[in-house]
Amino acid sequence: MTTTPISPSLIATLPGHYYTDPEVFRLEQEKLFESMWFCAVRSADLDRPGAFRTVQVGRESVLITRARTGELRAFLNVCRHRGARLCTEESGEVRRTLQCPYHAWTYDLDGRLIAAPNLINMPDVDRVAYGLIKVSLREWLGYAWVCLADEPPSFEHTVMHAAVERLGDPAAIEHYGSERLALGRRITYDVRANWKLIVENFMECYHCATIHPELTEVLPEFADGYAAQYYVGHGAEFGQEIKGFTVDGSEGFATLPAVTTDQDRRYYAITIKPTVFVNLVPDHVILHRMFPLAADRTVVECDWLYAPEVVASGADVSKSVELFHRVNAQDFEACERTQPAMSSRAYREGGVLVPSEHHLGVFHEWLLSRLGDAGGGRDAGRL
Ligand code: FES
Ligand code: FE
After folding, report:
1. Residue 125's CB: how many other CB atoms inside 10 A?
2. What pTM does this model have?
């Protein structure tokens, strides 16, 4: 097969097999999702002791629960006896203990083994040593982030710094007070595409004029193909006639209390690698959490967060939800259209990035350095 050389103003994407190969995905599970901080659950979803949620982090099922002291705890969702999955439901609530459905070993909400049938005959079983395996957990922006690494990387450097990098001011994201906001709507999307297609799509706006008619109406500069992410600290300004970040540009809700004048009437988009997107607008925050389940499947949970009084009043949030829901549906349809072609011979060497997408090359370099180029390198598809 012969291919045309890429012109100097264009650079290559990753080869197609990076989006389809189960071995590349396995490496990503190990080197990214199981090694970095992973945004797992919204803290307020676990609103009382015993409430739990299980999430897939790389190859592990992680159980997150609220202890009696009120703190969140994370454990591997594996019984220490013979390895049965402790909680099989995605979410739920237990009274005081977590009991394995196989032989009834029972753990308290701090993960200590507190009871097991016939254990009285086995005095040498150390109840602490056979407790659930703890997973590191940090809370930020109102979410619980977990890390499976034995020695987690600095949360400040690897997670919080991403926001600083984008907004140019460490305090800028704090102005939105995400941890104090209330959930107005959550929509879960089961996307038949590799997680990197979703990241790349989020990071560029070359597609905005083609597939996002409602968004470009609200943010006219997006029609030019430059994402807000392209400029450090630059939010995309609302159009002159636009009153709020809603599907028809109509009035939204009151500006969040600490949002500054220069942040008002602007939209900011932040990618926190590997799996989180934060969208900031004056009256709400939209946060995407991705759960990559296979090379060609990613579940995305998207939360729309508003001031608590807006949600408590029962106000109709559908106009602002509808705007980004349409954006999500349009984006994920584009990713699903791209996924099958990743295994085409036409994409064996990858595609190209136009100048307004060159920052995606930085994402690719980051990925390759994390994987230690073990995915086969850019040239692996060249035969
Ligand atoms: Fe859990 Fe036996 S595997 S009690
Ligand atoms: Fe988009």
Report:
1. 14
2. 0.93
